[in-house]
Design a protein that fits this description.
Diaminopimelate Epimerase, Chain A, domain 1, alpha/beta, about 240 residues, about 55% helix
Length: about 240
């Protein structure tokens, strides 16, 4: 259900616009759509107001050879008003990380869950069957699910859909991190996708899946027509 937040981000990215990038979208060399900041900023602003934690999103095209995404993110986090958390994505190396300063802030969110490659328990089961080499590995894989970033990044996409996929994935990670930090402080976020926007997200989800189903239906209908046309041509050639 949490991945539906990404669908909301996708639609919002397409339909909203604003003239200024939000401060909590600290750096964006990837999506580069003003509307993406419009989605991120209210969550970061409300989180800061209610918890005092600053949550930043950084999206890079690439990094210098000797710099890791974690080191780059930590440099940003440490110079921000404390406590600070940075969610970072580098496009070319396909690296995602979440860092916090001071380290005690890690207790307020589950980084392993957010960055898990498995979106669901079923995915964790499949991973354990495919990759586990021992019983301990099985236990680790089986407990490692709930990911909201990597499963989206792993989806295939072409053209403009690639950028939209990045927006969806990182919105998921940012929103989930914000909600977990808020939960740790005993507060809820009105701007979070899991709360006040749920009805809108459900509507977007139905529209999104309806569009996909319509496209699939059109694809198979086109293939069926092509086969019928090919069969008819072969029959006409045979009759000749």
């Amino acid at each position: 259900m949490r991945n539906t937040r990404g669908l909301a981000a996708l639609i919002l990215t397409l339909f909203f616009s604003t003239s200024l990038f939000a401060e909590y979208l600290y750096q964006d060399d990837v999506v580069q759509k003003e509307s993406f900041a419009e989605v991120i900023n209210p969550i970061g602003q409300e989180l800061f107001e209610k918890t005092g934690v600053s949550l930043y999103l950084v999206m890079l095209r690439d990094l210098d050879t000797n710099v890791s995404v974690a080191d780059y993110a930590m440099e940003i986090a440490e110079k921000m008003p404390q406590p600070a958390v940075v969610v970072i994505f580098a496009e070319l190396p396909k690296k995602v990380q979440i860092v916090a300063s001071p380290s005690s802030v890690y207790e307020q969110f589950d980084r392993d869950m957010i960055l898990s490659p498995n979106a669901s328990f079923i995915g964790a089961v499949i991973s354990s069957v495919m990759f586990a080499k021992s019983f301990d590995d099985v236990k680790e894989e089986m407990s490692n699910y709930g990911g909201v970033v990597l499963p989206v990044l792993a989806e295939r996409a072409k053209g403009k859909d690639v950028v939209e996929k990045y927006a969806v994935a990182m919105f998921n990670g940012y929103s989930e991190t914000a909600e977990q930090i808020a939960d740790a402080h005993g507060v809820s976020l009105d701007t979070a996708a899991g709360n006040g926007n749920q009805i809108a997200i459900d509507v977007i989800r139905y529209i999104f899946y309806g569009t996909i189903l319509f496209a699939i239906f059109g694809y198979f209908r086109g293939r069926r027509r092509a086969r019928l046309r090919e069969a008819k041509e072969k029959e006409e050639n045979h009759n000749e």
